[in-house]
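Amino Acid Chain and Its Fold in Token Form
===========================================
What this section holds: a protein sequence and its matching fold, both as plain text.
Structure line: whole-number tokens from a learned vocabulary of local backbone shapes, matched to residues.
Purpose: to set a sequence beside its fold so the mapping can be learned.
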Amino acid sequence: MAKKYLLTLICLLVIGASGCSRNDDVKKINLSEKIDVKNTGKQSEKSPVRIAVGGMTTPRAGFVYYKQLLNYIGEKLGRKVEFVDREDYAAINNMLQNREIDVAFVCGGPYVDGHEEFGLELLAAPVAYGGTVYYSYIIVPKDSPVKNFKELRGKTFAFSDPLSNSGKLIPTYMLAKMNETPESFFKSFYYTHAHDKSIKAVATGVVDGAAVDSLIWEYANHTNPEFTSKTKIIEKSSPHGIPPVVIRHGMDLELKERLRQIFLNAHNDKKGQEILKGMMIEKFVPIDNKAYDSIREMKQWVDKQTAGKK
């Protein structure tokens, strides 16, 4: 018992008070912030366009480039843009549903949920490492004797967000294929609410393993490998549709098309190219709803297995 409390205390100290929650009873602490992005273009009298970037979507070090991108969008629109930072996907989806924000960078899992529940729409998708797919990496400390996912039985584990595809659904699906659940398989598990926090938790020995977004692991490994260098990838999932840019249902058609064209053409001018380079994105492209069918299939399979055990 003392060891359990010690682990929790260490997790809180290393990851931060909002970043470590036991199982699905997630304690929600609002650490969000709203920042008005400076717009050097001509301003209109229209209401600002509000764009959310989840703390799960990029390492904190990468936020500067997202802010630059939002500034770029504001300049192209000639309209004020507000940056909205949220720590979990449920909050972002709720704001999209209630029309409190207009655009968001989300994971494939929240998109699938939002599309089904309230008509969330795709706007564009980034091309990274030559494609519009990404993976879930199962990582452990570099000096860990664990060689595969099955050897994490009875260990401690970090998920990112309850709605994350790479950080929760994929490893849960892997467990379901083994006729296991996170509760039955792991000694304990936690939600960090950010992939870079999960990487840090593994690198510093707070947990024995984690499931993280391949794009974020690779970004961190390329830009600042302080923590990725202390981890190793023991399994890589099959490819899934890359985290997209989405818009709320019912957006003005003219605004939607203008936003789409800004994203799709950002790589065609010098300023846009520089911003995308910092984000390690080649360009934005159209993407079809079918690109996320593999996520739907996993969700349905996991839900069916879970219902069968009740």
